[in-house]
TrEMBL record:
Enzyme Commission designation: 7.1.1.-
Protein name, as recorded: NAD(P)H-quinone oxidoreductase subunit 2
Record gene name: ndhB
Mode of membrane association: Multi-pass membrane protein
Keyword Membrane found: yes
Gene Ontology CC terms, in alphabetical order: endomembrane system; plasma membrane-derived thylakoid membrane
Length: 529
């Protein structure tokens, strides 16, 4: 029997090698926990991190693979999916570092938590390359159900239970809506599940401009918007962020969001190639609502976790600008921003976790005078927050520059101007926290900071947490300096992704494509000549 045919033929399991490594790490965590019990909690998280790093190395070796299609065409391991899968795996590895002390202090089992986190990672990685409706839905539910379980993992905490229940109910409704839209696509295409064949089947049947197609498009986008926390599908975000374990929130804010954008790009570009103007119009509306509401409501928040929740909603609006542009620079800027958002957002959550472990609070007013007790935490949290606000020369500044420039080249003048205004608004509430930590006089120090403990680095789990904090600080700083080579790498991934090429809008021909661009923009902003 010729086993090599499995790797080069229709089955071709080679592209899912990174997921296989994560699966082996997941099994090692489960079996190790069963055999060694709670004593294995000291080393099992590092087995999971080793597996995730091994998956990232495997992804690097698969760059520009000549045979990216796997599992009879239901999975595409192209360069675009490689970047998204790398972002998800890296976010999980950093989240595990942040979770060790937090979970142990809560008195719950760390190994089970890591296993659920790896399961969610598997779902997100498969979702990033899913090329088939069945694969998409199974991957989406694997990610979602694991997220529900992690949200309610602190069973003794009533807020965690409430957050899990809200997340489950709203998430189940979102999954049902997405599934109904997928079933319409299946019917309209004549019984196809592969995304390319769906588009071909709909075009052959002449059903690309029907009411059923419009309903399918709206329902599918509703499911995606839930995953990326876009307004008006954001209702779960503030309550879930506030009530859930903070490491879970950190993963949801990066890993789940990255998987959602990967799904959006692949599904919309491949299944709706003749409806580009329509889904660009819908995402333009989502971007406007997310930027305005997310940043405006964040101004009134007094809790750091709720502040970062509304910040996440606003950030989803910024990222959507690149998706609406639908140019090579637009898709590249979306991926680049998600890459740098990984470090600056996880760094902010690592700071929140460390402060909460030492003080038991996440109120912004309790951060007053923190620089006098913990300069490293103050520096790391300040840099990450300022980067989220887009202050130069940090990574977030270059990420927004690339997004806004891609939008401007594509003729999205209204979206870019609104993005600039709301970005300035976001700087205010980020700087407010930094000022609270740095500017306060000694006599204005909060009670939480006055009682701030020190010298607990030797406690199990504190060193990995600080390592994750320092890693995020260094990566956020260096990503700004290395923004050009990183953006070049991302642009190459978009250029090498075959499925994106027919959908790209050329910026230089924007004037020639005036009907398409105006269809997207005029219902939202009156374009001035």
């Amino acid at each position: 029997m010729d086993y090599s045919s499995n790797f080069a033929g229709p089955l071709n399991v080679a592209p899912i090698l990174p997921e296989s490594i994560v699966l082996v790490a997941l099994m090692a965590v489960l079996v190790g926990d069963l055999i060694f019990g709670r004593g294995a909690a000291r080393w099992l998280p590092y087995v999971a991190i080793a597996g995730l790093l091994g998956a990232i190395v495997a992804l690097c070796y698969q760059w520009d693979s000549p045979h990216p299609l796997a599992l009879l065409g239901s999975f595409n391991g192209d360069d675009l999916s490689i970047l998204f899968r790398g972002i998800i795996a890296l976010s999980t590895a950093t989240t595990i570092l942040m979770s060790i002390r937090y979970v142990e202090q809560s008195g719950t089992a760390l190994s089970e938590f890591v296993a659920m986190l790896l399961t969610a990672t598997l779902g997100g990685m498969f979702l990033s390359g899913a090329n088939d409706l069945v694969t998409i839905f199974v991957s989406l539910e694997t990610l979602s159900i694991s997220s529900y379980l992690m949200t309610g993992y602190m069973k003794r905490d009533s807020r965690s239970n409430e957050a899990a229940l809200k997340y489950l109910l709203i998430g189940a409704s979102s999954s049902a809506i997405f599934l109904y839209g997928s079933s319409l696509l299946y019917g309209l295409s004549g019984g196809e599940t592969n995304l390319v064949e769906i588009a071909a089947g709909m075009a052959a049947a002449g059903s690309t401009q029907t009411l059923a197609t419009a309903i399918a498009l709206v329902f599918v986008i509703a499911g995606i918007a839930f995953k990326i926390s876009a307004v008006p599908f954001h209702q779960w975000t503030p309550d879930v962020y506030e009530g859930s374990p903070t490491p879970v929130v950190a993963f949801l804010s990066v890993g789940s969001k990255a998987a959602g954008f990967a799904l959006a790009i692949r599904l919309l570009v491949m299944a709706f190639p003749l409806d580009t103007a329509e889904w660009r119009l819908i995402f333009s509306t989502l971007a406007i609502l997310s930027m305005v509401l997310g940043n405006a409501v964040a101004l009134a928040q007094t809790s750091m976790k709720r502040l970062l929740a509304y910040s996440s909603i606003g950030q989803a609006g910024f990222i959507t600008i690149g998706l609406v542009a639908s140019t090579e620079a637009g898709f590249s800027s979306t991926i680049f921003y998600l890459l740098v958002y990984l470090f600056m957002n996880l760094g902010a959550f690592a700071g929140v976790i460390l402060f909460a472990l030492r003080t038991g609070t996440d109120q912004i007013s309790d951060y007053a005078g923190l620089y006098q007790k913990d300069p490293l935490l103050t520096l790391s949290l300040s840099v990450c927050l300022l980067s989220l606000g887009g202050i130069p020369p940090l990574a977030g500044f270059f990420g927004k520059i690339y997004l806004f420039w891609a939008g401007w080249q594509a003729g999205l003048y209204g979206l870019v101007l609104l993005g600039l205004v709301t970005s300035v608004i976001s700087i205010y509430y980020y700087v407010r926290v930094v000022k609270m930590m740095v500017v306060k006089e000694p006599q204005e120090m909060s009670e939480a900071v006055k009682n701030y403990p020190s010298g607990d680095e030797n406690i199990n789990g504190m060193r990995p947490l600080r390592a994750g904090l320092v890693l995020s600080l260094v990566a956020t700083s260096l990503a700004g300096i290395l923004s050009n080579p990183l953006f070049t790498l991302v642009t190459e991934s978009v250029a090498h992704t075959t499925m994106l090429q027919p959908a790209l809008v050329q910026p230089q021909s924007a004037a020639a494509e005036q009907p398409q661009v105006s269809l997207v923009l005029e219902p939202v902003f009156a374009r001035s000549e």
